[in-house]
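Chain A, query sequence.
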Amino acid sequence: MPFQNRVDPFGDIHAVPERGLLMGNRGIIHDPDTKTLLDKHWATKAWLICVCDFKGNKREPMGRNGPGGKAGWTELFFLDEVTALAAGHRPCFHCRREEAVDFARHYGAAFGVTKPSAPEIDERLHRERLASGGPLVPVDRAMFNKLPNGAMVFYGDRPFAKRGGELWAWTFWGYGDSWDFFEFEFDVWLLTPPATVEVLRQGYKPLWHPSINKKRT
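Chain A, predicted structure.
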């Protein structure tokens, strides 16, 4: 039985077999004795995107990985960085420092901040991401045309990632068929926090799951 630690683009946490390319955390949100999530699904405003393998460090998922046998932060997993960004996470300055610095640089360019701090970015993302109560932002055709590659939207309960002018259906195991915006009648909403959309617009290049590159006929 898989642990409940796989994150979808909405920021919700599920128990599914597929782990994905990246790990992350929102602080300590699990009980190490039962290896189950607590009622709260974040313990900090710093929602991070981490690598799954860092300097050979070993962790017991949802176990006792903190000092003195305490729980330690809860390991979460994402299909890819596009998914994690949509859920409201940002690159970790410890294990993904190059990406984190690049993200902060593009954030600064987007909002006119010379050296944005991690807490400043986290505070804004916490206000904007849907999983922590951010507002719904509708997406019309004009807005869709301006969305950068890597931004995600949803229609009904289905998330889609924009790439190459099309929308690619998201699943826990990869990207499916492509859709045109005109195929949706109405009620398309933004998933990726607006601040992260601006970071992508400035040129930040997220890691995509390789299924996005498969040939479709």
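Residues 129-213 form one domain. The longest strand covers residues 158-163.
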